[in-house]
Specification:
InterPro entries: RNase_H-like, RNase_H-like_dom_plant, RNaseH-like_sf, RNaseH_domain, RNaseH_sf. The chain is an alpha+beta fold and about 140 residues long. It is built from five helices and four strands. The chain folds into two domains: about 70 residues, no CATH class; about 35 residues, no CATH class. The chain is globular, with a radius of gyration of 15 Å. The chain starts with 7 loop residues before the first strand and ends in a 10-residue tail after the last helix.
Length: about 140
Amino acid sequence: MHGRLLLAFAKNLGYGNSTYAELRALLEGVKHCKKMNFSAVDIEMDSKVILTWLDKNRCGSWYLEDFWEELQLQLIAMDVRFMHIHREGNAAADWLARRGATDGDVEWQSMGEVAPLLRGLLRVDKWGLPSIRRKK
């Protein structure tokens, strides 16, 4: 399955800080994995905060505790490996987050369906090429 798009999604998560957005995105992604019957999953993310929580098996923010507990329930009976990736290597996820914030919920199940810019970001990732962020 490496390098092949199985599902891309964007979701409007409402208002919150970056930790809220990262935790909610992780929870939504894990839910999609379970819905697609994936029991073994590698998850790359750029949030060191969430990765530290996962490593310590403890949520660090009281107001995110409900989402944290739901995530823990979703992870039962799953073989999940979490890995840190630098923000520059997470360009497709950042694009999807912006899309969800501005345009609402959307899902794509094949490369032919996704927007051209996202398709390009996914190809750069698949080919292992470096991604360059442009400051605005």
